[in-house]
């Protein structure tokens, strides 16, 4: 019997002509890269679930328009306009949220995340078949990152915004996919739905025509979107009548309009600098022009992406014409991220699919992902920092004194009765002051065991030399609301919640804690950030007290009976 030397079998397999086994990286790498597209929506989900349940400004105007005094729907009002935009589908979503979802912001935000996920899946479905597995996976991951970029956090955490912008993006992508697959009537149907979601979606019609032309479709299919689009725009011009407004008049300065439009297209490449965004927008358009020379087969394969790029540019033109007068940062608004994402998704696909230097071009995708996410941090932080104002608005509305929030809560004398009739947040069971012991507005409690700082500055020395400080720096009356602001600490602990009580011990107001106060934290070294608070209560006669819950229990102090009156 002849022994077989170690490794002989392996050598025979290698030399027998069989292909080598793919490495684990080659086999599973594209799958793992593609699955990384799940991370951006999960991160945005966390943001939505952390944000307050109170809806944002435009939502209230729409709710006033589409409801009667008793909260019932006015169906004909769904066909109205918001700042000149056709707003049928978002208005319907707002009504469904108000009627069946207790008017909560977060559930509608979850739906907006679903629209974003659908948009990414539609991008995946449109990718050219000529791309390899690594390229497809990388583009899906990059598309997810752009759609759920921190620059666009406004669209998700303030769900009323995404109900128009993200819905429109998903419908536009559906229309482009339909025309790519030759389903022209479906493309027109999705285009019509996009057009009644927001006015910028009118740009879908020339985009569909461009795709049909690049695909080599018959002339009538190239002309059809243009004709339908012209009818849509003319109908809009007739029906909107004298409505509209919503801010300054469009600027007559072409340079200012150009700044707004180009910076919108490049906003993902900067935190807050319009000049950098403008340069990035110009660079993106230049890259598209550099890749415009294609063979007929390349044009046919890339047709939907040129259509998506044209849609983004069309949106920028419309936005620059109507919003440039709002200043040099007009194009950097967080809600415009979906149009910026459309441009850069289209550009990345066109660049990666280009036959020259494929590896270098694929690396560009990774660079885009990392750069745009990091640069979105300042925008995201600015939106997060506004969350306490929304929480305080919810409390002010619950006590029916939102007088200090006219810039967020319009016509309360008309709006509050509608909210109560609908059981709409903050008049729904989900409303809470967030106190660990369940204390809520309207509760009557005994404060006999609650501790009160003893001296004039409301400072109570502790055995270990640390203090309890309940500091009310601002105490002002705005109409029927009494607004409080300050900071509080017990030992080394910040407050868990704040409540305002009348003389009988009834909770008549409350507020928000855990607000960063660098000046207070500088006086208390070693303390975590978040010592600040803001609270609101009715400006009623009689003494009021403000109370704070700490890990060691409740502390309470009286308020002055002569607050400052602000006209």
From TrEMBL:
Alphabetically list the UniProt keywords.
Answer: Membrane, Transmembrane, Transmembrane helix
Which regions span the lipid bilayer?
A: 108-127, 162-179, 185-214, 221-239, 275-293, 305-326, 338-355, 362-380
Q: Where is this region: Disordered?
A: 1-25
- What is the name attached to this protein's record? Glycosyltransferase RgtA/B/C/D-like domain-containing protein
